[in-house]
Specification:
17 strands; alpha+beta; 5-stranded mixed beta sheet
Length: 431
């Protein structure tokens, strides 16, 4: 199989080299690239000291978890999902709230502070003033603001290795607003800082710096790629020459002559390789255009997605398949002497002695071809098959040249035992 792999590499490199050297390419960028970016902005979070002053002695309980779910507490679920900056107060089913307190909070209290998904909510039991004096008691909920006690405080020394974040934080602090117009930083720098200091599942990538909270807003920056890339054509030609030289060095080692009779001579192998290159060079051209388009945003001269896709497919599929066909048919040699028949094929060497030869016959090999979209078997070659008394089988490919067939037949006549010579001669006359 080393011959096949060498041929695949050689023909692939030669086709790439030919395309790079002799076929035209654009040298001007044209396109828009979208890169993920991070915009830093001030965040409004409740101050822990102010909460303690406003609600002295009231414990804060986080109810963000599987206990509060729409199946067991549908009305409470509705209330907590609706509460926020745009909907700051609501009322819920009192019995459901009491049941939840008994089950989850381990006791009923008329006033509680609970946290649901970073939202601090004051929960009380009382009468809804809007419903009038005679209204029954109900569960009243008021959204107080965003609350997260796990926000980490970072210092200037913590941000020393992150100059863009430091610059943006100071700019926002100096402006006194949360304007993010010029507060964009690279996603890579932000991710490095988060990996080092923050825990996204706990703090939502929010941090405290000198008493002010900052949080990210993720988006995409559109970068226009345009302008001529100087030296691109020369670079492609140099790469093409290098690829071509390496390819020819690999290819030279394929056309060596083995001992015995080469079933198909070097000229046949060269002919098949040329056929493969006729398919591979345009395919390689499509691959190079695709690579330039995806990496350097250079529009291809042939701007047809289907043709580029087919080019990539043919390059990746046809070169290995055609190389296997060529290697299999052109790397076999046959040596016939007084001891027996010796065959050196693509992947193995095998022999059959005359005294163990049991039978000789022909076997047809077929390949599927498509006619009007219908696969039809077509005869590829008529192989000479020899089988020993022990069941060993040796197959000799059909030579493409009649002169090679005559050489093989002549060797059989010269070295076959007397009792087999006439039978073998009659059989080979029909090959």
């Amino acid at each position: 199989m080393g011959i096949w792999l060498r041929r695949v590499c050689a023909l692939g490199l030669i086709s790439l080299g030919m395309a790079l050297i002799f076929l035209p390419f654009n040298e001007t960028r044209s396109g828009i690239v979208e890169k993920e970016s991070v915009s830093l902005q001030k965040a409004e979070l409740l101050n822990l000291d102010e909460i303690d002053t406003q609600f002295p002695g009231v414990e804060i309980t986080d109810i963000t978890g599987p206990e509060l779910n729409p199946d067991d507490y549908p009305d409470l679920w509705r209330v907590f999902m609706d509460l926020g900056e745009d909907w700051t107060s609501d009322s819920g089913d009192l019995n459901e709230w009491k049941r939840f307190q008994n089950s989850v909070l381990k006791g009923i209290s008329k006033a509680r502070l609970v946290v649901f998904r970073e939202g601090l909510v004051s929960a009380t039991i009382g009468k809804d003033k809007k419903a009038g004096k005679d209204a029954p008691e109900t569960a009243l909920f008021s959204y107080l603001g965003r609350y997260n006690p796990n926000i980490k405080e970072l210092t200037e020394s913590d941000l020393t290795d992150y100059p863009a974040i430091t610059r943006v934080v100071k700019r926002l602090d100096a402006s006194g607003t949360g304007d993010i117009g010029s507060a964009t930083i690279s996603k890579n720098e932000w991710d490095r800082m988060v990996d080092r200091y923050l825990e996204p599942l706990v703090d939502s990538q929010t941090f405290n710096f000198k008493g002010t909270f900052y949080e990210p807003e993720f988006g995409w920056d559109a970068i226009k790629m345009e302008g001529r890339i100087s030296g691109l054509r020369i670079t492609l030609k140099v790469l093409g020459v290098i690829s071509l030289l390496i390819g020819f060095l690999l290819l030279r080692r394929l056309y060596f002559r083995k001992a015995g009779i080469m079933v198909n001579p070097r000229g046949i192998a060269i002919f098949y390789d040329v056929i493969t290159l006729l398919v591979a060079i345009p395919s390689a051209y499509m691959i190079i255009n695709t690579v330039l388009s995806k990496t350097m945003y250079i529009p291809p001269i042939i701007d047809d997605d289907y043709m580029r896709l087919m080019g990539i497919f043919l390059f990746c599929a046809d070169i290995p398949i055609l190389s296997l066909f060529t290697s299999r048919f052109t790397s076999q040699s046959v040596e016939i002497d007084s001891e027996g028949i010796h065959v050196d094929s693509l992947g193995e060497k095998c022999s059959i002695r005359w005294d163990s030869l049991d039978s000789m016959d022909f076997s047809d090999e077929y390949v599927l071809v498509f006619r009007l979209g219908i696969p039809i078997p077509r005869q590829l070659q008529k192989r000479l098959t020899l089988e020993s008394k022990t069941g060993q089988r040796v197959i000799i490919n059909e030579p493409q040249l009649k002169s090679i067939k005559r050489q093989i037949a002549l060797r059989f006549e010269q070295h076959a035992p007397n009792h087999l010579r006439d039978e073998i001669k009659q059989l080979l006359a029909t090959w």
